[in-house]
Amino acid sequence: MTNRLADETSPYLLQHAENPVDWYPWGPEAFERARAEDKPIFLSVGYSACHWCHVMERESFEDDATALLLKANFISVKVDREERPDVDAVYMDAVHAVAGRGGWPMSVFMTPEGKPFYAGTYFPPTPHQGMPSFKEVIDQLAALWETQREEVLEAAAKLTEAMRNAHDALTAAAGDELPGADTLHQAAERIAHEFDDEDGGWGGPPKFPQPMVTEFLLRRYCQTEDGRLMRMASETLDAMARGGIYDHLGGGFHRYAVDLEWRIPHFEKMLTDNALLARVYLRAYELTAVPAYERVATETLDYVVREMTHPAGGFYSAQDADSEGEEGRFFVWTPAQIAEALQGTPEAADGGIELFCEAYGITPEGNFEGSTVLHLPRPMPELAASTGIPVPELESRLAAMRATLFEAREDRVRPARDDKVLAGWNGLMLGAFAEAARVLDRKDYREIAAQNGHFLLGQMCTADGRIYRSWKDGRATLNGYLEDYANCADGMLELYETTRDERWFEAAAGLGDAIIEHFSDPAGGFFDTSDDHEQLIVRPKGVQDGAVPSGSSMATGVLLRLAVHTREARYAEAAAGALRSVGPVLGRAPIGFAKWLTVFAEFLEARGQME
Predict the structure, then answer these.
(1) What's the Cα-to-Cα distance from 297 to each of 237, 253, 282, 285, 391, rounded to whole Å?
(2) Spatial distance between the Cα atoms of 401 and 155, rounded to a whole number of angstroms
(3) How far, in Å, are 330, 538, 575 from residue 168 at the CA level?
């Protein structure tokens, strides 16, 4: 038996299509049913590579008793946050307001009008460490809906008003003038103050890569030649490349590290992270000529070609953390597994197996549930000094053994892959391939980038210049968001600058025009949804850069580049207006506005060209 999700294209929604929960996809049918039956809505938001989403599905959504309890008291709606970032952004504000923190799976209880009255993230099947069980939450909220309806509606109205006020505050805080040039200096100083001098990076644990912060430091270094900025960038890039967050056998980066030293990752792989990181390693290579940076960038892109590319040219979205029901099982090793895979190979002679285990920190006790996540505890020169093996020979031997282990790993059960194609995420990866083709003079990368450009224009763009958000199995669905237009335009501009083929510039300019026409906020900046998009309780306007650059910062960068290319004032004015809207916070919160800072640095450099 399947539920209504069986007709969806999202792999995440399809994962729930056989749940006993009477799921609805987001849409008018669910809200009409809630009003007709006078029931509140339970909204569950997640994504296919989310470990705790899978856990809550196994514990609660596959449980018949929980499903019956939900059906008796709520209309249940399931949303893929990657397909509907607007729904995710709006209701994540409610989660933060109620729970004080956010995350996925997101669990929101709301009125049939979409106004939230209670929200949280993961709920366990039984009470645990002060958390109520999911069934207890359902029972208590259902009772409140029946017996204290007025209080529930009042709470929903207050929470909705608070969410609207928070969005209005973004406009109220906008500046009337462009930020001063000293903003870049202030931002760099704050970033330096928050830098982890021991292990590189910022924040954590959990510790996220922050490629946009690193990109800003590299840009700022080019302007100032301040060695501190290059040191922070290079130490961070070196630490991540040595850590377990990087896949030393297959290339590409996992989502984040759960420790300060970058050794133990959360094992999911996202297209977005790998696009941004490939690009920042590439730019570091341009500045430093360090071969390791080129290797990491190319291995990351080669991973995308091998495992994340549809035959038609689109790039898939993500790979799960789990395989065979265990997190990280595909990626970790024991000494016995290493020995079995390498035994009898030429590289295993003369203590090769022991050398590999020493190089990659492989021990009998392991560092992750009895196994080891491959990482480099010491830089290669230190290992060479301790073993007496010259660095070139050491690197060659280790590379040969990595190749053997990669082939052995290919026989394992692979993590599931989210094979939907998202326009905005593809735009980021298109930009990475196009830039790599130009910097490294790689014809194969140029062809991959062009194929993706043709795919986006042919499969995900309409004749009148609009763009779809998602594509799978030949079906393009959902209105595009600001990030879809901005990221695809950025990728098209990179492809144009690599090939000088005018079709890519024309495509980028058309998307830039659509941004101005359909997403502009008269008060400055841009909304995340177009003026003809479905109306939610709040029209989202996210300006902060998170795991990916905000649609607003990317749109501003695109319009700035179009202004430089065309000398058209409307592009420059729109970019300047957006920069004014975030000016007051750029210097105060640089980690959360790092892409904006890079765009502002580019704006100052380009201002003379636009006058």
Answers:
(1) 11, 10, 6, 9, 21
(2) 61
(3) 46, 10, 21
Predicted local distance difference test score (pLDDT) of residue 93: 92
Residue 204 lies in a domain: yes
Q: Both tokens of residue 460? A: 């995900």
CA distance linking residue 26 with residue 296, whole number of Å: 40
Mean pLDDT score, 96-120: 95
Same domain, 381 and 453: no
Which among 486, 495, 498, 496 is positioned nearest to 599, based on CA atoms?
486
For residues 105 and 77, is the Cβ–Cβ distance under 8 A? no
What is the bridge-based pairing of β-strands 75-80 and 23-25? parallel
Extended beta strands in 299-397, E state: 318-319, 322-323, 326-327
User: What pLDDT was estimated at residue 611?
Assistant: 61
Structural domain tally of the chain?
Answer: 3
CA 513 to chain centre: 26
Q: Are 85 and 24 in contact (CB under 8 A)?
A: no
Residue 302 has pLDDT above 80, yes or no: yes
Burial 171-199 (b: 16+ CB within 10 A, else e): eeebeeebbeeebbeebbeebbeebbeeb
Q: Are residues 263 and 343 in the same domain?
A: no
Q: Are 313 and 212 in the same domain? A: yes
HSE at residue 74, side-chain half, CA atoms within 13 A, is 30
Parallel/antiparallel/unpaired status of strands 265-266 and 256-257:
antiparallel
Per residue in 322-336, pLDDT (tens digit) is 999 899 999 999 999
The predicted pLDDT at position 54 comes to 92
Rounded to two decimals, the pTM is 0.95
pLDDT score of 24 more than 80: yes
585: domain CATH number is 1.50.10.10
Identify the residue with better confidence: 48 or 240: 240
Tell me, what's the pLDDT at 149?
97
pLDDT score, position 129 = 86
Mean pLDDT (whole number) for 137-165:
95
Contact 558, 515 (CB under 8 A): yes
* Structural domain for 33, as ranges: 4-172
Cβ–Cβ under 8 Å, residues 62 and 16:
no
Q: Are strands 475-479 and 468-472 parallel, antiparallel or unpaired?
A: antiparallel
* Burial (Cβ within 10 Å: 0-12, 13-18, ≥19) of residue 462: exposed
> 157-193, pLDDT tens digit by residue?
999 998 888 777 666 666 678 888 899 999 999 999 9
Residues 187 and 289 in one domain: yes
Strand partners, 17: none
Under the banding of pLDDT at 50, 70 and 90, the label for residue 363 is: very high
DSSP 3-state of 467: strand
Query: SS3 for 571?
Result: helix
Token look-up 């050794």 returns: 263
Look at residues 145, 172, 199 and tell me which one is the last residue of a structural domain.
Answer: 172
Using the 3D structure, point to which of 387, 409, 431 is the last residue of a domain: 409
